[in-house]
UniProtKB/TrEMBL annotation:
Listed transmembrane segments: none
Protein name: Sodium transport system ATP-binding protein
PROSITE patterns, per the entry: ABC_TRANSPORTER_2
Pfam families to which the protein is assigned, alphabetical: ABC_tran
ABC transporter domain boundaries: 2-239
CDD domains on file: ABC_NatA_sodium_exporter
Organism: Thermomonas hydrothermalis
Keyword check for Nuclease: no
Superkingdom, natural source: Bacteria
Family: Belongs to the ABC transporter superfamily.
A GO MF term: ATP hydrolysis activity
Length: 251
């Protein structure tokens, strides 16, 4: 379970306009085990910055993050062991094959070669990567890179999974496959959080939705609760009402 409490992050202004940017302003939510929680918001809403604070890359200016009850500020290393992260920059090593990229992370987590081989086989099958697993990642399509980065993130069988816009740039079939995979993670009782600016995506997958606009949570709840909150006939109308604009919400 991941708990975000009153998170705030400001960046110093740069260039001509040196007004500080308030990227995240009092964001709180709970992502439960066995559920998929979606952060939905338009470009620049603060989703990536929020996720970076959850996965210990950035320190909040205020507020705190608890992962399975552990305060990230007090024991970041322990928290990292229980996290699988797909960052916004996928960052796969291009001279290594997909399999080597995945194995490298497994080794960093202290796994044995046999454990790495077994887990890689499971992930490669689930993510349908077998036909490119042993190719160097240089020249990979965006979808192949993303799959490699997801497998790498999950090599150590983490209990909590954080994915920044996982379906960005993926085709329809690959997206369908990935959705099925995220549902498997949920069925295994993991805590899954992902960000998206595509409402259909969030609506199709999430048990709980946290809507972020301009660094603030404008609403959160199950899809049904969000519909009830706005009185809207469908989720699309509810989202538009809750965000206050249609900008950036579509694929
Ligand atoms: N390192 C940084 N330095 C300065 N400003 C930043 C930095 N990181 C993020 N920001 C600003 O913080 C705000 C929130 O950015 P963030 O990347 O969290 O949004 P997002 O919701 O993930 O957007 P997108 O959907 O476009 O990826 C934006 O105005 C962005 O320009």
């Amino acid at each position: 379970m991941i708990v975000a409490e009153h998170l705030r992050k400001t960046f110093p202004g740069r260039g001509k306009d040196n007004t500080p940017v308030i990227a995240v302003d009092d964001v709180s939510f709970i992502a439960r085990d066995g559920e998929i929680t979606g952060l939905l918001g338009p470009n620049g809403a603060g989703k990536t910055t929020t996720l970076r604070m959850l996965y210990t890359l950035m320190t909040p200016d205020a507020g705190r993050v608890l992962v399975d009850g552990i305060d990230v500020a007090s024991d970041a290393e322990r928290v990292r062991r229980s996290l699988g992260v797909l960052p916004d920059a996928r960052g796969v090593y291009k001279r290594l094959t997909a399999r080597e990229n995945i194995a490298y992370f497994g080794a960093l987590h202290g796994m044995t070669p046999a454990e790495i081989a077994a887990r890689t086989a499971t992930l490669a099958q689930a993510l349908q990567m077998e036909d490119f697993l042993d190719r160097a990642t240089e020249g990979f399509s965006q979808g192949q890179r993303t799959k490699t980065a997801i497998a790498r993130a999950l090599i150590h069988d983490p209990k909590n999974v954080i994915l920044d816009e996982p379906t960005n740039g993926l085709d329809v079939m690959t997206t369908r496959g990935l959705r099925g995979f995220l549902k498997t993670l949920r069925a295994e009782g993991r805590c899954v959080i992902f960000s998206s600016h595509i409402m259909q995506e969030v609506a199709a997958l999430c048990d709980r939705i946290v809507i972020i606009a301009s660094g603030r949570v404008t609403a959160q709840g199950t899809p049904d609760e969000l519909r009830a909150l706005t009185g809207a006939a469908n989720l699309e109308d509810a989202f538009v009402q809750l965000i206050g604009s249609e900008e950036g919400l579509h694929a």
